[in-house]
Protein backbone atom coordinates (compact mmCIF):
# COMPACT_ATOMS: atom_id res chain seq x y z
CA UNK A 1 0.00 0.00 0.00
CA UNK A 2 1.21 3.51 -0.80
CA UNK A 3 1.73 6.29 1.67
CA UNK A 4 -1.43 8.11 0.62
CA UNK A 5 -3.66 5.07 0.05
CA UNK A 6 -6.99 5.16 1.84
CA UNK A 7 -6.87 3.59 5.28
CA UNK A 8 -9.74 2.26 7.35
CA UNK A 9 -9.97 1.78 11.09
CA UNK A 10 -9.66 -1.90 12.01
CA UNK A 11 -11.95 -1.29 15.01
CA UNK A 12 -14.94 0.65 13.67
CA UNK A 13 -14.36 0.31 9.92
CA UNK A 14 -14.58 4.04 9.25
CA UNK A 15 -12.28 5.76 6.77
CA UNK A 16 -9.30 7.42 8.42
CA UNK A 17 -8.42 10.99 7.49
CA UNK A 18 -4.96 12.07 6.32
CA UNK A 19 -3.69 12.94 9.83
CA UNK A 20 -6.06 10.73 11.80
CA UNK A 21 -4.28 7.37 11.72
CA UNK A 22 -2.98 5.83 14.95
CA UNK A 23 -0.72 2.94 13.94
CA UNK A 24 -1.09 -0.43 15.69
CA UNK A 25 1.27 -3.39 15.55
CA UNK A 26 -0.93 -5.12 12.96
CA UNK A 27 -3.42 -2.52 11.83
CA UNK A 28 -4.79 0.99 12.03
CA UNK A 29 -6.83 2.90 14.59
CA UNK A 30 -8.81 6.08 13.97
CA UNK A 31 -8.53 9.04 16.33
CA UNK A 32 -12.14 8.65 17.49
CA UNK A 33 -11.54 5.09 18.66
CA UNK A 34 -8.19 6.13 20.17
CA UNK A 35 -9.98 8.71 22.33
CA UNK A 36 -11.92 5.89 23.98
CA UNK A 37 -8.76 4.22 25.31
CA UNK A 38 -7.59 4.73 28.87
CA UNK A 39 -5.70 8.03 29.31
CA UNK A 40 -3.08 6.08 31.32
CA UNK A 41 -2.43 3.66 28.45
CA UNK A 42 0.80 4.33 26.51
CA UNK A 43 1.61 1.10 24.69
CA UNK A 44 -0.57 1.54 21.60
CA UNK A 45 2.12 0.98 18.95
CA UNK A 46 2.92 -2.47 20.37
CA UNK A 47 -0.77 -3.41 20.67
CA UNK A 48 -2.61 -5.59 18.21
CA UNK A 49 -6.10 -4.98 16.88
CA UNK A 50 -7.39 -7.67 19.25
CA UNK A 51 -5.64 -5.99 22.18
CA UNK A 52 -7.40 -2.71 21.40
CA UNK A 53 -10.78 -4.41 20.99
CA UNK A 54 -10.29 -6.01 24.39
CA UNK A 55 -9.46 -2.68 26.00
CA UNK A 56 -12.47 -0.96 24.43
CA UNK A 57 -14.69 -3.72 25.82
CA UNK A 58 -13.16 -3.08 29.26
CA UNK A 59 -13.75 0.66 28.84
CA UNK A 60 -17.45 0.08 28.22
CA UNK A 61 -17.67 -2.04 31.37
CA UNK A 62 -15.80 0.70 33.21
CA UNK A 63 -18.43 3.24 32.10
CA UNK A 64 -21.02 1.37 34.16
CA UNK A 65 -18.79 1.61 37.25
CA UNK A 66 -18.23 5.31 36.58
CA UNK A 67 -22.00 5.85 36.57
CA UNK A 68 -22.26 4.03 39.94
CA UNK A 69 -19.32 5.89 41.52
CA UNK A 70 -20.29 7.88 44.61
CA UNK A 71 -17.66 10.29 45.90
CA UNK A 72 -17.05 9.98 49.63
CA UNK A 73 -13.65 11.71 49.71
CA UNK A 74 -11.91 14.11 47.36
CA UNK A 75 -8.25 15.18 47.31
CA UNK A 76 -6.43 17.63 45.07
CA UNK A 77 -7.24 20.73 43.08
CA UNK A 78 -7.48 20.72 39.27
CA UNK A 79 -6.95 16.98 38.95
CA UNK A 80 -8.56 15.11 41.83
CA UNK A 81 -8.16 11.75 43.50
CA UNK A 82 -11.69 10.59 44.28
CA UNK A 83 -12.63 7.76 46.62
CA UNK A 84 -15.81 5.71 46.74
CA UNK A 85 -15.34 3.97 50.07
CA UNK A 86 -18.62 2.06 49.85
CA UNK A 87 -17.54 0.22 46.69
CA UNK A 88 -13.82 0.43 47.61
CA UNK A 89 -13.04 2.21 44.34
CA UNK A 90 -10.90 5.18 43.40
CA UNK A 91 -10.25 7.26 40.31
CA UNK A 92 -8.09 10.18 39.19
CA UNK A 93 -9.77 12.76 36.99
CA UNK A 94 -10.46 16.40 36.18
CA UNK A 95 -14.03 15.62 35.17
CA UNK A 96 -17.14 16.59 37.10
CA UNK A 97 -19.44 14.22 35.22
CA UNK A 98 -17.84 10.81 35.75
CA UNK A 99 -20.41 8.90 33.72
CA UNK A 100 -19.68 11.04 30.66
CA UNK A 101 -15.89 11.29 31.08
CA UNK A 102 -15.49 7.58 31.92
CA UNK A 103 -12.25 7.80 33.96
CA UNK A 104 -10.70 4.46 34.89
CA UNK A 105 -12.31 3.15 38.09
CA UNK A 106 -9.94 0.94 40.07
CA UNK A 107 -10.38 -1.20 43.16
CA UNK A 108 -8.44 -0.29 46.29
CA UNK A 109 -6.88 -3.76 46.05
CA UNK A 110 -5.26 -2.78 42.72
CA UNK A 111 -2.98 -0.28 44.49
CA UNK A 112 0.61 -1.50 44.91
CA UNK A 113 2.15 1.76 46.06
CA UNK A 114 1.94 5.54 46.15
CA UNK A 115 4.69 8.12 46.34
CA UNK A 116 5.27 11.84 45.90
CA UNK A 117 7.99 13.11 43.55
CA UNK A 118 9.11 16.73 43.84
CA UNK A 119 11.00 18.11 40.83
CA UNK A 120 13.35 21.01 41.61
CA UNK A 121 14.77 23.44 39.06
CA UNK A 122 17.24 26.25 39.78
CA UNK A 123 17.67 29.52 37.85
CA UNK A 124 20.45 32.00 38.62
CA UNK A 125 19.34 35.55 39.36
CA UNK A 126 21.33 38.45 37.92
CA UNK A 127 21.51 42.18 38.40
CA UNK A 128 22.27 45.05 36.05
CA UNK A 129 25.66 46.73 36.51
CA UNK A 130 26.61 50.35 35.82
CA UNK A 131 27.13 49.53 32.12
CA UNK A 132 23.67 47.99 31.79
CA UNK A 133 24.97 44.42 31.61
CA UNK A 134 23.50 41.48 33.48
CA UNK A 135 26.01 40.20 36.02
CA UNK A 136 25.93 37.59 38.76
CA UNK A 137 25.52 38.42 42.39
CA UNK A 138 28.44 37.65 44.70
CA UNK A 139 27.85 35.06 46.00
CA UNK A 140 25.45 33.78 43.28
CA UNK A 141 21.72 33.95 43.99
CA UNK A 142 19.16 31.52 42.68
CA UNK A 143 15.42 31.18 42.31
CA UNK A 144 14.02 27.69 42.75
CA UNK A 145 10.90 26.23 41.20
CA UNK A 146 9.10 23.07 42.26
CA UNK A 147 6.59 20.75 40.65
CA UNK A 148 4.79 18.02 42.59
CA UNK A 149 3.90 14.70 40.98
CA UNK A 150 1.92 11.89 42.56
CA UNK A 151 2.68 8.39 41.32
CA UNK A 152 0.21 5.60 42.06
CA UNK A 153 1.43 2.15 41.03
CA UNK A 154 -1.29 -0.39 40.29
CA UNK A 155 -2.05 -3.88 39.08
CA UNK A 156 -3.99 -3.37 35.86
CA UNK A 157 -4.04 -5.11 32.46
CA UNK A 158 -3.46 -1.89 30.48
CA UNK A 159 -1.19 0.26 32.64
CA UNK A 160 0.83 -0.04 35.83
CA UNK A 161 1.33 3.59 36.81
CA UNK A 162 -0.77 6.73 37.20
CA UNK A 163 1.51 9.78 37.30
CA UNK A 164 0.01 13.27 37.45
CA UNK A 165 0.81 16.77 38.75
CA UNK A 166 -0.71 18.14 41.93
CA UNK A 167 0.06 21.78 41.12
CA UNK A 168 -1.21 23.50 37.97
CA UNK A 169 1.74 25.93 37.88
CA UNK A 170 5.25 25.76 39.33
CA UNK A 171 5.86 26.87 42.90
CA UNK A 172 8.62 29.50 43.06
CA UNK A 173 10.90 30.10 46.01
CA UNK A 174 13.78 32.54 46.43
CA UNK A 175 15.96 32.07 49.52
CA UNK A 176 16.30 35.11 51.74
CA UNK A 177 19.69 36.78 51.78
CA UNK A 178 21.09 38.70 54.70
CA UNK A 179 21.57 42.44 54.08
CA UNK A 180 25.08 43.70 53.30
CA UNK A 181 27.06 44.43 56.45
CA UNK A 182 30.43 46.12 57.05
CA UNK A 183 33.51 45.16 58.99
CA UNK A 184 34.84 47.33 61.84
CA UNK A 185 37.20 48.89 59.27
CA UNK A 186 34.25 49.93 57.11
CA UNK A 187 34.79 47.37 54.35
CA UNK A 188 31.75 45.42 53.07
CA UNK A 189 31.62 41.80 54.20
CA UNK A 190 31.24 39.00 51.66
CA UNK A 191 27.74 37.55 51.90
CA UNK A 192 27.18 33.86 52.36
CA UNK A 193 24.70 32.07 50.11
CA UNK A 194 21.08 32.11 51.25
CA UNK A 195 19.77 29.14 53.18
CA UNK A 196 17.78 26.92 50.82
CA UNK A 197 14.79 25.50 52.65
CA UNK A 198 11.60 25.41 50.55
CA UNK A 199 9.65 24.54 53.70
CA UNK A 200 9.77 28.31 54.31
CA UNK A 201 7.34 28.64 51.39
CA UNK A 202 3.67 28.13 52.34
CA UNK A 203 2.69 26.96 48.84
CA UNK A 204 5.47 24.37 48.85
CA UNK A 205 4.26 23.03 52.19
CA UNK A 206 0.68 22.93 50.92
CA UNK A 207 1.44 20.64 47.97
CA UNK A 208 3.87 18.48 49.92
CA UNK A 209 1.27 17.91 52.62
CA UNK A 210 -1.41 17.30 49.98
CA UNK A 211 0.69 14.59 48.32
CA UNK A 212 1.56 12.95 51.61
CA UNK A 213 -2.08 12.94 52.69
CA UNK A 214 -3.23 11.30 49.44
CA UNK A 215 -0.53 8.64 49.67
CA UNK A 216 -1.39 7.93 53.30
CA UNK A 217 -5.10 7.64 52.51
CA UNK A 218 -4.57 5.35 49.50
CA UNK A 219 -2.14 3.13 51.38
CA UNK A 220 -4.64 2.86 54.24
CA UNK A 221 -7.45 2.12 51.79
CA UNK A 222 -5.63 -0.74 50.06
CA UNK A 223 -4.92 -2.35 53.45
CA UNK A 224 -8.60 -2.22 54.39
CA UNK A 225 -10.49 -5.41 53.57
CA UNK A 226 -13.91 -3.97 54.43
CA UNK A 227 -15.57 -0.71 53.36
CA UNK A 228 -14.11 2.14 55.37
CA UNK A 229 -16.44 3.18 58.16
CA UNK A 230 -17.13 6.85 58.76
CA UNK A 231 -18.20 6.06 62.34
CA UNK A 232 -15.45 6.51 64.98
CA UNK A 233 -14.08 3.30 66.51
CA UNK A 234 -15.94 2.28 69.63
CA UNK A 235 -19.09 4.18 68.66
CA UNK A 236 -21.13 1.08 67.87
CA UNK A 237 -24.45 2.37 69.15
CA UNK A 238 -26.03 5.22 67.24
CA UNK A 239 -29.22 7.01 68.16
CA UNK A 240 -31.99 6.04 65.73
CA UNK A 241 -33.26 9.61 65.51
CA UNK A 242 -29.77 10.77 64.48
CA UNK A 243 -29.66 8.08 61.78
CA UNK A 244 -32.99 9.22 60.33
CA UNK A 245 -31.93 12.88 60.37
CA UNK A 246 -28.59 12.08 58.77
CA UNK A 247 -30.21 10.04 56.01
CA UNK A 248 -32.67 12.84 55.30
CA UNK A 249 -29.89 15.41 55.01
CA UNK A 250 -27.71 13.37 52.65
CA UNK A 251 -28.11 13.92 48.92
CA UNK A 252 -26.27 12.89 45.76
CA UNK A 253 -25.06 15.60 43.39
CA UNK A 254 -26.58 15.03 39.91
CA UNK A 255 -23.59 16.78 38.29
CA UNK A 256 -20.67 14.79 39.73
CA UNK A 257 -22.20 11.99 41.83
CA UNK A 258 -20.70 13.25 45.11
CA UNK A 259 -22.38 12.45 48.43
CA UNK A 260 -23.22 15.64 50.33
CA UNK A 261 -25.15 17.04 53.31
CA UNK A 262 -24.87 20.81 52.78
CA UNK A 263 -26.66 23.21 50.46
CA UNK A 264 -23.87 23.09 47.85
CA UNK A 265 -21.85 20.13 46.52
CA UNK A 266 -18.46 20.18 48.22
CA UNK A 267 -16.84 18.59 45.16
CA UNK A 268 -18.15 20.66 42.22
CA UNK A 269 -20.08 23.52 43.86
CA UNK A 270 -23.49 22.67 42.36
CA UNK A 271 -26.59 23.81 44.23
CA UNK A 272 -28.58 21.09 45.98
CA UNK A 273 -31.57 20.19 43.76
What does this structure look like?
- The protein is an alpha+beta fold.
- It is built from 5 helices and 14 strands.
- It has 2 domains: about 5-70, no CATH class; about 70-175 and about 195-225, PH-domain like (Roll), CATH 2.30.29.
- It has helices at about 30-35, 50-70, 100, 200-225, 240-250; strands spanning about 5-10, 15, 20-25, 30, 75, 80-85, 90-95, 105, 110-130, 135-155, 160-165, 170-175, 250, 260.
Summarize the structure.
This protein is of the alpha+beta class and 273 residues long.
Short key terms for the protein model shown above:
273 residues; alpha+beta; PH-domain like; four-stranded antiparallel sheet; 5 helices; globular
Amino acid sequence: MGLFDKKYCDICGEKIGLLGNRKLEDGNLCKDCAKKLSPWFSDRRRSTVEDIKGQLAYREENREKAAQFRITRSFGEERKVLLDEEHRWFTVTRARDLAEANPDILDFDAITGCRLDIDENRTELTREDADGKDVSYVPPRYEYSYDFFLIITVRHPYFDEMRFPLNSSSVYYEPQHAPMSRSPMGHPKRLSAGRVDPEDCAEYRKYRQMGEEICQRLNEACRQKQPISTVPEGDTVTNEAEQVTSAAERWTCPACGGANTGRFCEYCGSLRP
